[in-house]
Amino acid sequence: MSYGLIPxxxxxxxxxxxxxxLSVIFTFSxxxxxxxxxxxxxxxxxxxxxxxxxxxxxxKGEILENG
Length: 67
Prior knowledge:
Helix content: 55-70%
Oligomer: single chain
């Protein structure tokens, strides 16, 4: 892109380097925090309830209420 047409859009090397560094730091931090939250709040066990009758609904309700 030519900055001759729009010279006020020119970004200095220092600003570019700082922006790039901050982008990398924030992206890495977001990935670390996101994976930590997913691991800590995700259910520890997976339960598969087979059926759609009243008993299956009662089992589901008990699991959701009591953990």
